[in-house]
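Holo prediction — adenosine-5'-triphosphate.
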Amino acid sequence: MRKYRLMVIKGDGIGPELIESALDVLQAVEKAVGGFQFDIEFHEGGAGLFKREGYAFSEKSLMQASEFDAILKGPVGDPGLRLDDGTEASSISGILRNGLDLFANVRPITLLPTIQGVRGGDSEDIDYVIVRENTEGLYASRGRGIGNDRVMNDILMLTRDAVERIARFAFKLARERSLKRTSNTATVTCVDKSNVLRTMAFFRKIVTEVSSEFPEITLEYIYSDACAQAMVLSPEKFDVLVMENFLGDLLSDLGGATVGGIGLCHSGNYGSSLAYFEPIHGTAPDIAGQNKANPLSQIRCLELIFEKLGELDASAKLYDAICSSLKSGKFTLDGNGCPSDGTLKATKSIIQCL
Ligand code: ATP
């Protein structure tokens, strides 16, 4: 029996209910596939801890994180809990990403069966990945903006090392994706605003340099504003998109909206060996505790965890079960991207298809 240690952070808002769904599904996949077992350890992080202790994630949990095979994290934070400077107090994404140097945020944007795509069809060819640099860019200014009551300044900072490693990550991912497909074409699209900002021109230059290490992969360029339009009008042309942190945050929510909503979108945050997995969205306080949230964003994190651990049968079986549950008509979405019959029944319908 292969044993894995999984750190689980339930988070805030809809986090605990999403994690409950994902853990029920995990247990069902374990039974259905066999041969491996997850040992689960809960660690607290987010608003509750911040209110009690004044920090959102403990040093101890951060130190222990690297001992785990993977980390499953629910959305974290409380939009009402602000620091004196007006920014949110209880997010732990920055702590994990920078603290553990998880530099590559991978956000798959895929249209699942029966889900209506951005142009109104359910068989549109939307299957690409946003690779967002996680440790620098505009968000590196978090907590460091300088100013006073009349002027405020955040700095967009990029280093050559960080751009090189995220570019290499994107090209390698494009190569892996092409090996899984029958057609061997692979494209990396560099998304930037290099016509305006020097940092972005720097980003484009370095991505271009790194591309010479991957001659079989086509490199394309698009400005971020044009990219927003293309994600809606011609998403089928994308394979792997690589971009700076802030742009990646914005454009991945747009990508989510083109495939049924952010409630369907999962992500992985990868370093050299450790990784954590979470929905791309926030804590959705407007629907928390009402059995309304779409659990797919959290459940699909398991696919990435299985892939990371080499449990490829489990990943494929879970994906197939999700598709079957949607096709069976037992798991449908309302106009807001929430499961029509609630979180619990949607979860059950996936488990029944395993
Ligand atoms: P953050 O900045 O932390 O990402 P946010 O302010 O962008 O958070 P979200 O919490 O992501 O906001 O919510 C945005 C909208 O998406 C809300 O209307 C919310 O209800 C909806 N939403 C988010 N997650 C889900 C989900 N899993 N299922 C259904 N709707 C969701």
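READOUT: The mean pLDDT is 95.
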